[in-house]
Amino acid sequence: MKALETKSLTKHFGGLAVLQDISMTVEVGERRAIIGPNGAGKTTFFNTISGVIKPNAGEIFVFGDKVTQLPPFRRARLGLARTFQQNNLFVNLSLLDNINLAMPPNQAKMTPRDFLDNWGWWDKSTIPVKEFSYGEQRQVELLLALAQSPRLLLLDEPTAGMSSVETNKITTMIRNLSREITVLIIEHDMDVVFDFADRITVLNYGRVLFEGAKDEVRSDERVKEVYLGSVD
Amino acid sequence: MHRMLTKYPIWGGLLLLALFILPLLLSPYGLSLLTQVLIFGLFAMSLDLLMGYTGLVSFNHATYFGVGAYTVAILAGLGLNNFWLSLVLGISIPVLLALLLGLLVLRSSGPYFLMITLAFGQMIFALAWRWRTITGGDDGLAGIPRPDLGLPMSMWKAQNFYYLVLVFFAFACLILWKFIHSRLGKAIVGVRESETRMQALGHNTWGLKYLSYIVAGGFAGLAGVFYVYFNGFISPQELNWTMSGQVILMVIIGGAGTLFGPVVGAGMIIILQNLISSHTERWPISMGIIFILCVMYLRDGVVGSALKLRKKGRGNL
Amino acid sequence: MELSEIVIQTLNGISYGLLLFLLAAGLSLIFGLMGIINLAHGSYYTLGAYVGLVIIQMTGNFFVGLMGAAVVLALLGIVMERFFFRKLYKRELDQVLLTFGFAYLFMDINKWIWGGVPRSLPKPTFLEGSISILGEAFPIYRFGIIVIGLGIAVLLWLFLEKTRTGVIIRAGVDDKEMVSGLGINIKLYFSGIFALGAFLAAIGGVIGGPIIGAYPGLDFEILVLALAVVVVGGLGTLKGAFWGSLLIGFAETFGKAIFPDFAMFTIYVTMALILIFKPSGLLGKEES
Fold first, then answer.
1. Can you name the residues that pair with B312 across neighbouring β-strands?
2. I want to staple C108 with a disulfide (CB 3.0 to 4.6 A). Which of A104, B176, B200, B284 is the partner?
3. Which CATH number fits the domain that encloses residue A59?
4. Is B190 near chain A, with CB under 8 Å?
5. Rounded to a whole number, what is the distance in Å from the CA of A73 to chain B's nearest CA?
6. Residues A65 and A14: beta-carbon distance below 8 Å
């Protein structure tokens, strides 16, 4: 069984094709990075997998279940969790209330208190999230997804807009995740990508330009041309 | 925050006690005002569930209030004066309407939601206007008697009727309070804060909004039931946008998302309305001005601002 | 229905639809640029009709009244934007609530000044009388509405497509941030779009005046029709407002002819169907 499988996924906005014929499989426990220039369709790809956007054609399977037509909340109940590129939190509610909303009642493996204790956040649990710094909110963004006890986790630029010290906090958090969790990550920071990912998929103009183990990506000429060349 | 929340019901209890004693001190005119405050306070609380907690600004909340009232009036016209029957139907018909209209209006969100609620609200208003055989058209329905509960006390006596309203008001406060602080209620607040995140966390946000919409419709219907008993008369004006606007103002002036704030808002508007109406016919102009000023300078409302100040004060200590 | 009646009702539908277009276009453009649904838009229409009536009575000239009312309302639009809406910049929901407060205010001011008796506006003399179409009488004035309505639709289209200001407005509808980033003072355009919306609504009020008149309650009757137009056509596009207006115009006139007592339900049924099958409107933009 694959953690995620897409078959010929295609999405148009008006006349513009943002995803074209994307077929991809991700093994259980794998860490997969999705990279590519701005406008390559990375976030649209995540939105399509999580169900915010319905594709025009193609199929999506999560742990063998066909989810193409399911609403986002049903996919979440199959163990799919995601973070957002721009913090998407319940800012007027306390951290504890945020976590409460993320943990399904009765079936969660631990209580919200234990969860926050584990991650070292319990002493801040009564503070409304809007009073946190941006870097803290970015961590809460990730905590919310983890509180769902996901099996498949989509991370959309988790380190976006953070200082290098804060980036380290996030990368430490995700590096230590259990291998039971399959992780897809969109990330611009190549150090994070090459440190964390097993395999890398390069998107360009809504198509898969290349896919392979990270060393293969590093040495591929086409990838260098469209992406790495401009970063290095 | 938590201390404040646990103290809030104590204040509520004290307020209820005051509401229980007040009729003994008030003039008949004062008692009549206070009865209206409870009725409109209930109406405004039901809207606050949508506006303040769910984040749905509905521009046709008067629809459910008016339909509840019309239900009782039409039953009375058929000679059916049983209070419990009128009560049950006066709540369940608005609930049925909310079940139906909710399916349509909740297909949309944001600007579309407010346009569509307004449009369908005006449809019901126009229907009441045109359907003379049932609704009496613009003449309305008059002569609705006070309810007969089969008790030895007459509801024509202002004090007795007040206490009847108070009992239901207190009961409604309790249910709404419990609802908002239940797991479902917290999820509804989550929808207000971020619907997309709630979906990503596995919550059926459409279902949560639908539930909130129906509950709010039911309580608005309950307020309508007591309104028509109090007034003895109902006309299409009670279904019009002006009534929806009035209750929106009550929520804003009291403070959206504070549940009891809108009751304070209802009190302020009813008292102002009576004061101003005794001097001039131009109450709607005054209301328009108050509306504009509140939106611009008092967006948290009286109670909302007070809660904010208290919190700030505590933070500085 | 006989052929002659169908032709007459079709013409009625077009003239009524074009009247609605004058409201819906402003409503839709204000929304497109500012993200506000202006619930005082029906008040602009009604106020325009009353002001037009006063000026026509003073000058005896319909077209002076038409332009006078349009200019007065445009100024009112600017004042409202400049002194009220700008203070709530980027707080769209509060701005909508503000328009609701203004609707209240205008409703009572109208009643105060002009009372509860329905008023009718005179037609310009050269458009009086009627002509015969397939044996049925059809008022010439309605042709006048069609001509003026189409004329304004074309001018508006030219303005948005061919002028620099129009290009900026369309760009602003697509992406406000980008337009501000180009160093364009977007707030100036907010005032302008409010003025344009009020201007068009007032023209609607005056040219609709000889048929519909002006009376208490008209503000929300006409607002709801305009809302129906943008729900059906889709928000933020002139094209959507145009075709939506014609569709609602037809639904209203044919509805009235077929079910005289419950004409408005044809409109609500149309709206409900659109909501069920295409919630963003027939020509509305798909959200990305």
1. none
2. B284
3. 3.40.50.300
4. yes
5. 4
6. no
